[in-house]
Amino acid sequence: PRYLYSFRPGHSDATHPTAALLGGKGCALATMSQMSLPVPPGFILSTSLCARLTSSSSSNSSSTTATPILFPDSLTSQIETALAALSDSVGRVFGSATNPLLLSVRSGAPVSMPGMMDTVLNLGLNDKTVEALAKQTDNAIFAYDSYRRFLSMYANVVLSLPNALFEKSLSDMKSQYDCATDADLPLKALKQLVNKFKHHILSETGIPFEQDVFVQLRNTIAAVFQSWQNPRAQTYRAINHIPMSLGTAVVVQAMVFGNSGPTSATGVFFSRDPSTGVNKLYGEFLTNAQGEDVVAGIRTPQPIVRVTNVEGLSKKNSMQEVMPDVYKQVVDVSNLLEQHFKDVQDVEFTVEKGTLYILQTRAAKRTALAAVRSAVEMEGEGLISKDEALKRVDPKSLRQLLHPTLDSDVERDVVATGLPASPGAASGVVALSCNSAEFFAQQGLDVILCREETSPEDVAGMHISKGIVTARGGMTSHAAVVARGMGRACITGVSSMTIDEEKGVVKLDENVSVKEGDCVTIDGATGQVMLGKLETKPAQMCEEFKTLMQWADQRRDMTVLANAETPEDVRRALSLGAEGVGLCRTEHMFFDADRIVAVRQMILAEDNEVRTDALNKLLPMQRQDFTEILEVMQGRPVTIRLLDPPLHEFLPHEQHEFEAVARSAGVSVDVLKARADASREANPMLGLRGCRVGIVYPEIYRMQTQAIVLAAVDVARKSDKVVCVHVMVPFVSSVDELEIVRREIDNVASTILSSSENEEVAHLVQYTVGTMIELPRAALTAGEIARQASFFSFGTNDLTQTTLGMSRDDAGSFLQNYLKSGVIDRDPFVSLDIEGVGMLVELAAKEGRKTRKDLKLCLCGEQGADKDTVVFAQKIGLDAVSCSPFFVPVARLAAAQAAI
Ligand code: PEP
Ligand code: MG
After folding, report:
1. Which ipTM value was assigned to this complex?
2. Which of 153, 263, 688, 858 could form a disulfide with 793 if both were Cys (CB 3.0 to 4.6 A apart)?
């Protein structure tokens, strides 16, 4: 079988390159070769090898010996043939002691996983070839600099030795020779370093550094494939739901050298600004540096495009000024790549003695703001269709746009400043390591993770943090890329900051220090760090966001409603595009201080008289609640759910609470306490809740129906417009329950609507009765239930809890474990369990519509804005989803994508 695909400018073995086979990097290199762009030639080992090579070696594949790794037979010969062709095309020979070819070996999965897997550069150097390289380039410093880099990468990736060992020697050497940067090290120091590194390898592994370049290559290929299985790659896959079965490809390419002198450089550019989406090339580079230096944030890089400071003066260090010819080529390549891939590109390049080489291009990770803006603008430029623009934005990421920012009126005492790497304001306690971030997060605290620089090991810690601050690195450093992808606020390159992890202290600048656990605020949009917690204000939506949302609304079939119960939430939902209220949880209205006493009196009442007294107190309050909501919604549909509390939750606990109820009800505290004891339940979530309350105490639902219909009448009279209310009965498991409750509702409603004082407005009140489907029995008997319901709303929170037998309140304790160990790949309370709970929903929808063709169907559990859940809802023909106000835009976009 074919494992290997060669490429060079103007040619690719793979005629129709795909990321599935060649990995994202390999696919892009093959495509750029076909476009005749200046890529260094090389070959790709396909993803199909990954499973074979990783399963055939043990978890610690990185053989410290030269034991042959089990390569499929034909692979070795395919590599040899490809190497010969590669030698021909660059005019150098792998392993030659006069004219050596050096290689880079890089991983590249079908889905971008920036920095998660391994790379080895300068492969093919040994004691002989380094001398040849020195002679050939007339640059011994460059040759030995490359050799020491190769030694440490090989030791780390192939031999699994810790990086720290080599970094320590490097920094010792820099102080010994009094050098500020790596690039300043003299030849003598580099040679000493090479010896030291070889010595580390021998003393740590017991085996001398491998001088045979073919064995080097073989071991490195195996190790880079194996890095698909390293813990940080696993974490990244778990967070991003990337299946392990995809595997990585490995790209072997002729080296080009960004570290071969002052006219050489390495860098990264984005075809548009990945932070704001502005259509302007954005990037950074480092002269006389190699590969990973920019991405890893080792030195703070220079800008590609000229930047001017406040006085309008340029610092004269941009590529535009320093390498104007290369700059022009960069701009051309950027345009060509965007035209071809029709998306914002993130490009790695190297300049070798003034010649530009493109090493990689991929769709740029970007903030939600940048995603929205570039998608809408690309549609305007005729690059992509509206549908494509809608697909470009991850619905979930829209939450970032709704994130709070710091109020510009609030005084800011800025103690440190860095690069504004990812927008959003965040306050939290300082954590200096991922472990302490996790510790603080477990206490329910918001965390700001402060690091020298972040490495891929930090992904898990970044994920649980609200914001990230690093001392080193630029806008394209690992921290910045990952934070933008995750939607976390992030500031990089805070050069005044120093961190003492051992003492748990961060010096933000000369005079200001904070300890781990102290609170700080960061503004990812400006790069400012402030002490303490600052007030934030709600997010502002940009024009492009509004445009995209309009397109989404035109495209989607499903209605998007909100779960909201206060006039404030309802107003917010409306402003975020909700078309009505899909779920008004009336029990949430009962917690307010002014009514909790009456609610408790209602629950604990021993006789009808006391209960009626309590209900009489509650009626006007509920009527007022509903009136406000109906007024805000101006005729849009409002679904009000009758009381569904675990009654238990409302019971008084404290003496003074009992006393207040006793006063209000006119009974003794002792009697109340006895009633409360009798009402406590071991399993309140499965106890006296939902329609069971309505059946046991019919006067409660009667009062609520009265309040709803009276409010509807009030609003209809005042507005002279149609008012649309849907009364929803919760926690039904049989049609008989619904029938009993419905009879009560209809009685109350018709009494009010047929009374003579309401005669002239009754026709304006549209009211229907429906039910939640949130218990398995309800789903299974939905055909029956539909006889009594004009709509169903799927309560997938309870339906998930009762179908999986997992408590929605307590499942967190083991769900984390399940997610980490891969027992499940999604939290079923976040994304619907389609194979299980989804089956019940689908069945109920079908059976319900068999009974009643025009049965309206909605889904109102917390999964209502989750993309996959919405796609499923569309597929099975639901009419609407309902979700909390901030998720409404998310659901609108998800519904549009579901319709495409
Ligand atoms: C549900 O169960 O999915 C639902 C929406 O109702 P609640 O969360 O109030 O139980
Ligand atoms: Mg429920």
Report:
1. 0.99
2. 858
